[in-house]
Specification:
Layout (H helix, E strand, L loop, with lengths): L2 H16 L12 H26 L16 H4 L1 E9 L8 E9 L5 E9 L4 E11 L7 E7 L2 E10 L5 E5 L6 E5 L8 H12 L6 E3 L13
Antiparallel strand pairs: 1-2, 1-8, 1-9, 2-3, 3-4, 4-5, 5-6, 6-7, 7-8
Length: 221
């Protein structure tokens, strides 16, 4: 037994000898403290339940949106350049945004997304996961870059050779146009914009991402 344990045992024995029972005016824990402790425990349980709910919930699919099927997760793996998106918050400033997907053993996807921030002359990098929300051959995914908090990612257009794609989120103000290369083949952009408009996406809110060759900052190495 270590000195720390021996010292603790001696102190406890001595304390018990001197004061076998606490006096009525020396309560170890007053009732308000008990109530506060119970409230904290209840709050912790509620928070854990909330996190568990977010981890298992399925983001909604907007009305009129039909995720593609058949869809092959393994063929979707690899690098995708983000050519357009509906910008939210500070992500409108990012350039050369791209995401790498890789298949995990459990059938989910690991993703690494990066974008260049010209204001701070640096690359922002984040890691996350993507999970199917329906059958594995349906292009309905939920993507997380922040713990158990997922956002919808529904593939609604896809090249036969998986060279370009378009996805919408849980709401129609979330839309992404992706490509294996920094530019789209001729005519594809117009086709995707027409489809997005038919789904209800306000295509005027799409922000076209600057990619390689359009800015002197250079590519990600």
């Amino acid at each position: 037994m270590s000195f720390f344990h021996r010292a603790c045992k001696t102190d406890i024995t001595a304390a018990a000898t001197q004061h076998p029972c606490p006096r009525s005016d020396q309560r170890v824990l007053r009732s308000p403290q008990i109530g506060h402790l119970a409230w904290c425990c209840a709050l912790g349980v509620t928070a854990l339940a909330g996190l568990a709910f977010y981890a298992i919930r399925k983001p909604r699919i907007p009305q009129g949106v039909q995720p593609l099927s058949p869809f092959d997760l393994s063929r979707f793996c690899g690098r995708w350049y983000e050519l357009a998106r509906v910008a939210h918050g500070t992500d409108h400033a990012l350039q050369r945004t791209q995401t790498e997907y890789s298949l995990l053993r459990n059938g989910d996807l690991h993703l690494t997304t990066r974008g260049y921030d010209p204001r701070h002359n640096e690359w922002r990098i984040a890691h996350g996961t993507a999970k199917p929300t329906m059958a594995r051959d349906v292009g309905a995914l939920k993507v997380s870059l922040l713990g158990p908090f997922y956002r919808g990612f529904n593939v609604v257009a896809l090249d036969d050779d998986y060279q370009w794609a378009m996805a919408v989120g849980a709401q129609l103000n979330e839309c992404w146009i992706l490509s294996r290369t920094p530019t789209l083949p001729q005519g594809v952009q117009e086709r995707l914009l027409q489809q997005a408009a038919l789904l209800g996406v306000n295509t005027q809110t799409l922000c076209w991402t600057m990619q390689d060759g359009a800015n002197p900052t250079g590519s990600y190495k």
